[in-house]
């Protein structure tokens, strides 16, 4: 299969004429990668079980890992769901369109091939003008996980998509670099109480402000990898995700201890001839004299770290790093999403610099 690529010059007001062909591909059951405000998505008709199956095949994605249906208007939601709980209504009003996915009881219209066999459906209304216009033109809800090989760092540019998907899909819509850089927050509103299944740019604190009560994290997020026989409720919960090819270790603790520990570990690996990557911030990058040092942004501006996270991980793949050592970040606000992605990318391999001992969660 030859993958066609079209470039959207004006991403704020994309030309409808340019999007007619990818919209038709989606409508007829093909695969189109396109930008959203979070990461690039790999789209297919969410109501076409065969088309959804093509997503799983192209990504090498486990079939029990559910997909998110993307819509362009509020009126597109009722046909997909059997109920819209009050908490869902309030969150939609506050954050749609935007980087929030909500899980509802599904209607009979949505095939199990899209929901990973679940009786619930995940739905999002992206704010990105290209995504929104493309979905509206397609005239169908668009299932769209991240447009990467399953397990790899998510794509934040069309070039990243090309690296993983060229020759596997029909078209890539190039809308430039995405804005946020980590996937949407997922909140399950299908049960008695809302639960966060994946942290993102819509933070726990923001959900609290809307609902007037704490929205807890699902225990599976904080307790380590899910067991093999457990069916995940949402993307990103069960399987290895976001991982570079190199072995990644997160180092936690006081800043000076973290810097000292990373430098010691890097020196050990470098002395044995390995290629070593170091992930840090603008505030600390001058503290690392050896290795391939990459800053993800400013701690004072967590959005810069989120924006650069996957690009840095992919860069270390290009540089053929053998080992990567990363500083850790706060676990509140947007830092919660950053640490969720890094922890999964590291396979829960976390080193506490204070105790100078491995804390691997099995």
From TrEMBL:
<dbReference type="InterPro" id="IPR005145">
    <property type="entry name" value="Sua5_C"/>
</dbReference>
<dbReference type="InterPro" id="IPR006070">
    <property type="entry name" value="Sua5-like_dom"/>
</dbReference>
<feature type="binding site">
    <location>
        <position position="154"/>
    </location>
    <ligand>
        <name>ATP</name>
    </ligand>
</feature>
<keyword id="KW-0547">Nucleotide-binding</keyword>
<comment type="similarity">
    <text>Belongs to the SUA5 family.</text>
</comment>
<keyword id="KW-0819">tRNA processing</keyword>
<dbReference type="Pfam" id="PF01300">
    <property type="entry name" value="Sua5_yciO_yrdC"/>
</dbReference>
<feature type="binding site">
    <location>
        <position position="146"/>
    </location>
    <ligand>
        <name>ATP</name>
    </ligand>
</feature>
<dbReference type="InterPro" id="IPR050156">
    <property type="entry name" value="TC-AMP_synthase_SUA5"/>
</dbReference>
<keyword id="KW-0808">Transferase</keyword>
<feature type="binding site">
    <location>
        <position position="38"/>
    </location>
    <ligand>
        <name>L-threonine</name>
    </ligand>
</feature>
<feature type="binding site">
    <location>
        <position position="61"/>
    </location>
    <ligand>
        <name>ATP</name>
    </ligand>
</feature>
<dbReference type="GO" id="GO:0000049">
    <property type="term" value="F:tRNA binding"/>
</dbReference>
<dbReference type="GO" id="GO:0003725">
    <property type="term" value="F:double-stranded RNA binding"/>
</dbReference>
<keyword id="KW-0963">Cytoplasm</keyword>
<feature type="binding site">
    <location>
        <position position="184"/>
    </location>
    <ligand>
        <name>L-threonine</name>
    </ligand>
</feature>
<dbReference type="GO" id="GO:0005737">
    <property type="term" value="C:cytoplasm"/>
</dbReference>
<feature type="binding site">
    <location>
        <position position="144"/>
    </location>
    <ligand>
        <name>ATP</name>
    </ligand>
</feature>
<dbReference type="InterPro" id="IPR038385">
    <property type="entry name" value="Sua5/YwlC_C"/>
</dbReference>
<dbReference type="GO" id="GO:0005524">
    <property type="term" value="F:ATP binding"/>
</dbReference>
<feature type="domain" description="YrdC-like">
    <location>
        <begin position="16"/>
        <end position="202"/>
    </location>
</feature>
<comment type="function">
    <text>Required for the formation of a threonylcarbamoyl group on adenosine at position 37 (t(6)A37) in tRNAs that read codons beginning with adenine.</text>
</comment>
<feature type="binding site">
    <location>
        <position position="70"/>
    </location>
    <ligand>
        <name>L-threonine</name>
    </ligand>
</feature>
<feature type="binding site">
    <location>
        <position position="198"/>
    </location>
    <ligand>
        <name>ATP</name>
    </ligand>
</feature>
<dbReference type="GO" id="GO:0008033">
    <property type="term" value="P:tRNA processing"/>
</dbReference>
<dbReference type="InterPro" id="IPR010923">
    <property type="entry name" value="T(6)A37_SUA5"/>
</dbReference>
<feature type="binding site">
    <location>
        <position position="124"/>
    </location>
    <ligand>
        <name>L-threonine</name>
    </ligand>
</feature>
<dbReference type="InterPro" id="IPR017945">
    <property type="entry name" value="DHBP_synth_RibB-like_a/b_dom"/>
</dbReference>
<dbReference type="GO" id="GO:0006450">
    <property type="term" value="P:regulation of translational fidelity"/>
</dbReference>
<feature type="binding site">
    <location>
        <position position="65"/>
    </location>
    <ligand>
        <name>ATP</name>
    </ligand>
</feature>
<keyword id="KW-0548">Nucleotidyltransferase</keyword>
<feature type="binding site">
    <location>
        <position position="242"/>
    </location>
    <ligand>
        <name>ATP</name>
    </ligand>
</feature>
<protein>
    <recommendedName>
        <fullName>Threonylcarbamoyl-AMP synthase</fullName>
        <ecNumber>2.7.7.87</ecNumber>
    </recommendedName>
</protein>
<feature type="binding site">
    <location>
        <position position="120"/>
    </location>
    <ligand>
        <name>ATP</name>
    </ligand>
</feature>
<dbReference type="Pfam" id="PF03481">
    <property type="entry name" value="Sua5_C"/>
</dbReference>
<dbReference type="GO" id="GO:0061710">
    <property type="term" value="F:L-threonylcarbamoyladenylate synthase"/>
</dbReference>
<keyword id="KW-0067">ATP-binding</keyword>
């Amino acid at each position: 299969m030859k993958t066609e690529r079209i470039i959207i010059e004006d991403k704020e007001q994309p030309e409808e004429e340019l999007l007619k062909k990818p919209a038709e591909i989606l409508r007829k059951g093909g695969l189109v990668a396109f930008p959203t405000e979070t990461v690039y998505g790999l789209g297919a008709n969410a109501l076409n079980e065969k088309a959804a199956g093509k997503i799983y095949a192209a990504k090498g994605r486990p079939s029990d890992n559910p997909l998110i249906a993307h819509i362009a208007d509020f009126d597109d939601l009722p046909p997909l769901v059997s109920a819209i709980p009050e908490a869902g209504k309030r969150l939609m009003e506050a954050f749609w369109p935007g980087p929030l996915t909500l899980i509802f009881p599904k209607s009979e219209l949505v095939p199990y091939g899209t929901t990973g066999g679940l009786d619930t459906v995940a739905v999002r209304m992206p704010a990105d003008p290209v995504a929104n216009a493309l979905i509206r033109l397609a005239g169908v809800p668009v299932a769209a996980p991240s447009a990467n090989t399953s397990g790899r760092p998510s794509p934040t540019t069309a070039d990243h998509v090309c690296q993983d998907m060229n020759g596997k899909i029909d078209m890539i819509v190039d809308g430039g670099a995405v804005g946020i850089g980590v996937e949407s927050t997922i909140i399950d509103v299908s049960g008695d109480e809302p639960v966060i299944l994946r942290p993102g740019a819509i933070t726990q604190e923001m959900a609290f402000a809307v609902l007037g009560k704490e929205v807890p994290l699902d225990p599976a997020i904080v307790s380590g990898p899910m067991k093999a026989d457990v069916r995940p409720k949402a993307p990103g919960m069960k399987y290895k995700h976001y991982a570079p090819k190199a072995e990644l270790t997160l180092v936690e603790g006081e800043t000076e201890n973290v810097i000292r520990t990373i430098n010691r570990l890097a020196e050990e690996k470098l002395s044995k001839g390995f290629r070593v990557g170091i992930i840090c911030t603008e505030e600390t990058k001058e503290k690392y004299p050896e290795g391939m040092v990459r800053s993800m942004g400013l701690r004072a501006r967590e959005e810069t770290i989120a924006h650069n996270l996957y690009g840095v991980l992919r860069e270390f793949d290009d540089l053929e790093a053998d080992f990567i050592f990363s500083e850790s970040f706060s676990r509140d606000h947007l830092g919660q999403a950053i640490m969720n992605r890094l922890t999964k990318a590291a396979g829960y391999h976390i080193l506490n610099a204070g105790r100078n001992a491995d804390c691997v969660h099995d």
